[in-house]
């Protein structure tokens, strides 16, 4: 009697996942294996598959195991015409997955990142993938906040990749729609009369209400310099889209002594000179300046609180549990100091 209920629930969940996975047929478009043991899979997006930034999917590879499903954050934006996930090698299943895809990959061409890569033009056939989802996560509600403070440790940056791209896409779309509505308002004012003008004004006001988030601060902390290779394309893409200065990105490499320490003074000097001359950071290989050691989280909260007084700030963290307690405590501390509200959400891997 006591075993029947949990066994039935488990069997029902497995059957449901089996049928749901059959609804979404995906084919692999691109595969890349980067330093730091990170595997990137880009697959076709089923027409009926709808998701929000921050959500995750379950992935199964029959060539690895016909029964194992593992969750991974979606790193593509909802408006992208593809689905993508970034997978860090952390266990037996991910090690075997990397081995299976390594056999199907070829060495990269000159000028392309990634140790190994493959796509639809590769002669070797790519392994089959099944997906199930999407499933909800705390980060999917980021649009409820005026300002975002995103903190990712290592591969914990993955749910925020989609959020950053989606935020920029929403702002660009909102500005385009607002401009078109303003043009309609001016034209109707000149030609027809007040009825069309009132309707266009309603459209503008409705659009302003739908866009609440105006700024995002992203802090990415990693111990391995090789991790920048798989994140390089994302940082450059965000920098290219962000012509309005909406997103502020900060990279921290903890394997190097903090700035100001004599042991890292030479690296800091060369880094500053190269960034001033070429606009590229020598550590990350992007336009985003890399800092050393761990961030001073009190300074981060203090700066954000001062810059966005009276705002509702969503603090989203994804990573090991060790940092979650400190961030949660800082949110409570700064909520007691003034009208600025910090709301903490966490995900662990």
TrEMBL record:
GO terms for molecular function: metal ion binding; NAD(P)H oxidase H2O2-forming activity; peroxidase activity. It is a multi-pass membrane protein. The keyword Membrane applies. Keywords: Calcium, FAD, Flavoprotein, Membrane, Metal-binding, NADP, Oxidoreductase, Peroxidase, Transmembrane, Transmembrane helix. Residues 183-204 are annotated as: Disordered. Its main location: membrane. InterPro entries: Cyt_b245_heavy_chain, FAD-bd_8, FAD-bd_FR_type, Fe_red_NAD-bd_6, FNR_nucleotide-bd, RBOH/FRE, Riboflavin_synthase-like_b-brl. Residues 21-141 form the FAD-binding FR-type domain. GO terms for cellular component: plasma membrane. It is found in: Membrane. The keyword Metal-binding applies. Belongs to the RBOH (TC 5.B.1.3) family. This is FAD-binding FR-type domain-containing protein. It comes from Cuscuta campestris.
């Amino acid at each position: 009697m006591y075993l029947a209920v949990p066994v039935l629930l488990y069997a029902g969940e497995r059957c449901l996942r089996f049928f749901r996975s059959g609804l979404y047929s995906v084919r692999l478009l691109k595969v890349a294996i980067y330093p730091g043991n990170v595997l990137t899979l880009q697959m076709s997006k089923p027409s009926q598959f709808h998701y929000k930034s921050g959500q995750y999917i379950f992935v199964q590879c029959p060539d690895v195991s016909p029964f194992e499903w593992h969750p991974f954050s979606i790193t593509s934006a909802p408006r992208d015409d593809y689905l993508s996930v970034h997978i860090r090698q952390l266990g037996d299943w991910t090690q075997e997955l990397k081995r299976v895809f390594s056999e199907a990959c070829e060495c990269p061409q000159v000028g392309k990142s990634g140790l190994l890569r493959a796509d639809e033009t590769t002669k070797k056939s790519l392994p089959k993938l099944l997906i199930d989802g999407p499933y909800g996560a705390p980060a999917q509600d980021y649009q409820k906040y005026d300002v975002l403070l995103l903190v990712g440790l290592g591969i914990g940056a993955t749910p925020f990749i989609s959020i950053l791209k989606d935020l920029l896409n929403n702002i660009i779309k909102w500005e385009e729609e607002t401009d078109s509505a303003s043009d309609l308002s001016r034209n109707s004012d000149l030609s027809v009369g007040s009825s069309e003008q009132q309707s266009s004004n309603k459209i503008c006001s409705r659009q302003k209400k739908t866009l609440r988030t105006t700024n995002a601060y992203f802090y990415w902390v990693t111990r391995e310099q090789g991790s920048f290779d798989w994140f390089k394309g994302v940082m450059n893409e965000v920098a290219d889209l962000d012509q309005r200065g909406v997103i502020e990105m900060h990279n921290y490499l903890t394997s190097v002594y903090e700035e100001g320490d004599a042991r890292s003074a030479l690296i800091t000097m060369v880094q500053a000179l190269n960034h001033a001359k070429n606009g590229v950071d020598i550590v990350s290989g992007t336009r985003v300046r890399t800092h050393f050691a761990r961030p001073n989280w009190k300074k981060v909260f203090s700066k954000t609180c001062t810059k966005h007084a009276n705002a509702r700030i969503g603090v989203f963290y994804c990573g090991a549990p060790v940092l979650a307690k400190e961030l949660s405590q800082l949110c409570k501390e700064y909520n007691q100091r003034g009208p600025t509200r910090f709301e903490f959400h966490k995900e662990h891997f």
